[in-house]
Amino acid sequence: MDVYLPIANLSVNGLVIVLLGMITGVLSGLFGVGGGFLTTPLMIFYGIPPTVAAASASTQVTGASVSGVFAHRRRGGVDYRMGSVMVAGGIFGAGIGAVLFRWFQAIGQIDIVINVLYVLMLGTIGSLMLKEALQTLRPSEKGMSRTVKKRRHHPLVTALPLRWRFYGSGLYISPLAPLILGVVVGILTMLMGVGGGFILVPAMLYILGMNANVVVGTSLFQILFVTIATTMMHALTTRAIDIVLAVLLLLGSVSGAQMGAKIAQVARPEILRLVLSSIVLLVALRMLFGLGFRPDEIFTVVAL
User: Fold this and answer.
1) How many Cβ atoms sit within 10 Å of the Cβ of residue 141?
2) Mean pLDDT of the 131-144 span
3) What per-residue confidence (pLDDT) applies to 65?
């Protein structure tokens, strides 16, 4: 089933794109992450230009976050004050990301920048996840139990001025910490088309020291509004969003999320993390491998 993508200016198999969206949905159902950090590289491997892949993936992440926010809202799992501060930082960061995106695009280096960022990000995340998964599996094989340390916010967060009370998270910290975190995630969302949940969730747990019960819901709340902002900025500045591509991805992610939720109920979390970390590292190695090869077409001609 060939489908023409007007912005990417190429024909693709629509079923393959739906399958890529389904992979994103499965990851969302399994781990509570948007999955955009794998969707964009997979689309690049398929031949979609990195700029279009990154911009369109952010649109798909927006749709995938809506249902998650409502689900966590019903059980009181969203800290709106913390989320609002991170949203403000995320929108500001998205503006910075838009300027960087246009600048790298103007000098003809945006594709390289996106690929390098993904290699660094996926390599780091995959290594940390693999280490954690192996550490979790090792004690269980020996019949030993691990003691879980009480989470506290990072000393650098304690040193920041102007403390606020975030009752939903059980914190009394400076709003500058979540604001800066939001800025970083906003820049990455604009440049890479990712929701940022894979960065937000561990950062909120181990840097801000938030209550684990509100981490995922607050993360999705921030991702929802920041990806809406980045989608609008892409539409107005880069004009790289392919609506046909985004719709196909959404079709797959809706069904994939249901599959992922069912798998999560029966599978061991340690095994799932081990599998995901292996996939992430393989994708990082494949992108690093691709950066070292001379492309078939050295020059790109764009009609203005």
Assistant:
1) 7
2) 63
3) 66
Whole-model pTM: value is 0.70
Longest dimension (CA), the chain: 66
**Could you give the CA distance from residue 148 to residue 53 in angstroms, rounded to a whole number?**
39
In whole angstroms, what is the distance from residue 18 CA to residue 20 CA? 5
One-character DSSP codes across 147-213: PPPPP---HHHHTSSS-EEETTTTEEE-THHHHHHHHHHHHHHHHH----HHHHHHHHHHTS---HH
The pLDDT tens digits of the residues spanning 97-129 come to 888 888 888 887 877 887 888 788 778 877 877
Burial class (CB in 10 A: 0-12, 13-18, 19+), 176: middle
Question: What is the pLDDT confidence band of residue 280, given thresholds at 50, 70 and 90?
Answer: confident
Type of residue at 43: M
Residue 5: per-residue pLDDT: 82
291-292-293-298 Cα dihedral, nearest 10 degrees: 60
Q: Please check whether residue 267 is in contact with residue 274, taking contact to mean a CB–CB distance below 8 angstroms.
A: no
Helix, strand, coil proportions of the chain in percent (round to 5)?
Answer: 70, 5, 25
- 3-class state of residue 243 by DSSP: helix
CB 191 within 8 A of CB 54: yes
